[in-house]
Design a protein that fits this description.
Number of strands: 2
CATH architecture: Orthogonal Bundle
Number of domains: 1
Mean pLDDT: 92
Shape: globular
Radius of gyration: 12 Å
CATH class: Mainly Alpha
Helix content: 55-70%
Strand content: 5-15%
Order of helices and strands: HHHEEH
Distance between the termini: 28 Å
Low-confidence stretches: none
CATH topology: Arc Repressor Mutant, subunit A
Strand order of the largest sheet: 1-2
Largest sheet: 2 strands, antiparallel
CATH superfamily: Winged helix-like DNA-binding domain superfamily/Winged helix DNA-binding domain
Length: 85
Amino acid sequence: MSVGESEESHVVTLIRLHDLGVVDVERAKSIEEISREIEKSPYDVERDLSILKWHNHVYETYSKDNIRKYYLTGRGILAACSYYS
């Protein structure tokens, strides 16, 4: 996969998380849930989330069952919205 494809992939994931309303801790989703809902492999979702975390576009949290979950930061919401304008 080229750098351009990888960059495009995390942007698509960012926008899809916004479309799904994954914008606060109560709506946080696991890699598996995100993968299923946006129809990407768990590996690709995890890679995209890693990039988005580096850019401070997603937070990582843990459920009561100690499952990693993710949701958009304020900065991530703004970044996703910027693609609509």
